[in-house]
Amino acid sequence: MASRPVRADGRAHPLGEFFTVAGLANDGRIVLRGNLTRVHHIAAGMASGSIHVDGTIGRHAGEGMAGGRLTVDGSAGDWLACGLRGGVVHVFGDAGDNAAAALPRHERGVNGGTVLVEGTVGQLAGARMRRGILAVGGDCGEGAGFELRAGTVVVAGSLGPRAGAAMRRGSIVALGPTPDIWPAFTQGSVWQPAVIPMLLTQLARNGWRSPAATARGPWQHWHGDLTTGSRGELFCQPI
Length: 239
Known about the structure:
Layout: E1 5-8, E2 11-14, E3 29-33, E4 50-54, E5 69-72, E6 88-91, E7 111-117, E8 131-136, E9 152-155, E10 171-174, E11 186-191, H1 195-205, E12 219-224, E13 232-236
Parallel strand pairs: 3-4, 4-5, 5-6, 6-7, 7-8, 8-9, 9-10, 10-13
Antiparallel strand pairs: 1-2, 11-12, 12-13
């Protein structure tokens, strides 16, 4: 494994030039320790097994994963789990912009799997999701669920402005303070959909530690975006 090539500064280098490498190469498990803020694309394209990062991690972690589990004890950079197709990505710190979003020039973002962030995330979290779940334990920046195709975005902290703008389908669940609602949404009923407790139970079983995972309704239901057919939905605390 120490001789495995990795790219740095545009050139190939042996992995052992940067890291101390030990253990078996065929046990399906990788543990990385240290400050990996400048190490990008960790677990990109992973289909099985597990990677545990004891520290921080750089951009594009878990990009295009199809299976397996990526666990990060610290924080992650931008584009976390972009284009995820399967598996679980669990970050115990914060994540940057475009978490669980679509890559530039891509019509779809996450198409399956689960992304759990215990801390905060930046802008455009869950943008253009097609399937899957993104759960955020802290605050969420502007434009969460932008152009959402389907899938679910759950935010336990404050949901930033313009959430769900141009969404086509899918659900946004704001467990925290009542957010500013995008003007292209129409107000529905206050009720208790059975799917929200089921969703929160599933997230808790996957390891999401947010106290909001025990939140109970009733919930204010909003329909949107009017400009794209109003087939999406946003649930939040009643006004």
